[in-house]
Amino acid sequence: MKPTADGMTDQWLREEISRLKKEKNALIMAHYYTRDEIQEIADFIGDSLALARQAAKTDADVIVMCGVHFMGETAKILCPGKTVLIPDMAAGCSLADSCDPVEFAAFVKDHPDHTVISYVNTSAAVKASTDIVVTSGNARKIVEQLPEDEKIIFGPDRNLGEYINSVTGRNMLLWNGACHVHDRFSLQKIDEMKRQHPGAKVLVHPECRRPLQLIADKVGSTAALLDFAQKDDAREYIVVTESGILFEMRRKCPEKTFLAAPAEDSECQCNQCDFMKLNTLRKVYEALRDGKPEIRVDAEIAEKAVLPIKRMLEMSE
Ligand code: 13P
Ligand code: SF4
User: Fold this and answer.
1) 154 Cα to the center of ligand 2, angstroms
2) Which of 84, 266, 267, 299 is most deeply buried (CB count within 10 A of its CB)?
3) Atom 8, ligand 2: which residue's CA is nearest?
4) What would the pLDDT profile of 232-283 be if each residue is shown by its tens digit?
């Protein structure tokens, strides 16, 4: 392998990460949307729900969260005594950014008789104005546990909110937020792909728009789509979510074909989340070596935000 100017080959980085992990009693967690090489070195790979659950029960002293900022924040809120590192502080989330905490708190205040449900893709400050946090993996299950006539605010993802309204028959009041990756998949291009691959099943993340949800053979979180592909008997799938998930799909089902769905603008790699791709082997190594960048959450906000996150974990057991 060709060494870089500073001698850090990928192999060397992997060995150093492994050594530092043991030395610091660290756990490397990664979301399915991260680069293949990050998923390869992770101790634990999962969707947002699995990452939160794993963070809540780990006995590691240090968590390196290879994902985006809100995932690190959730881990820190659940484990305030642990060091939570995120390889790149710039790994944000357009969906979380579509929900300003001050505006959201005002919206909540304007609807005092509503229960507030927030997607985990939010800042700690938004979670602090929330009654129950959900992920795409448990939103339906949690909403169905509330009385049928309960008035509910759901934020920030309007596409996920519309999906949950459709499957539960509720009429939740939706915040108008979206993810820049999932909101841009093209129905027309996926129709074309279906014509070219008539036997392929369509797997859709609920952050995609309603028309895409309607043509899906399965709508679900990244973990649910992976699970479906493993149990289902089709040979070919069109995958309508961030394309990083294909790595684990191909690893779990090597005999099947997974095709990444294109977004509206095929000139760019719009089916990729640039934030997730900021996690690199070198940054994981540097984070472990230097003990930074470290996630910190304001104590007053964390004290409020932990309650709806714990409620989510209890209600989705
Ligand atoms: P999951 O809940 O499927 O992990 O989705 C998280 C996410 O960021 C989707 O864009
Ligand atoms: Fe956020 Fe979208 Fe990236 Fe998921 S894919 S982390 S929702 S920007």
Assistant:
1) 18
2) 84
3) 93
4) 999 999 999 999 999 999 999 999 999 999 877 655 557 899 999 999 999 9
**194-221: pLDDT as tens digits:** 999 999 999 999 999 999 999 999 999 9
Q: Which atom of ligand 2 is nearest to the CA of 207?
A: 7
Encoding tokens for residue 186? 């093209």
Does the beta carbon of 91 sit less than 6 angstroms from any atom of ligand 2? no
Q: Is the CB of 221 under 6 A from ligand 1?
A: yes
pLDDT at residue number 6: 76
For residue 283, report the distance from its CA to the centre of ligand 2, in Å: 20
* Whether 131 contacts 115, CB under 8 Å: yes
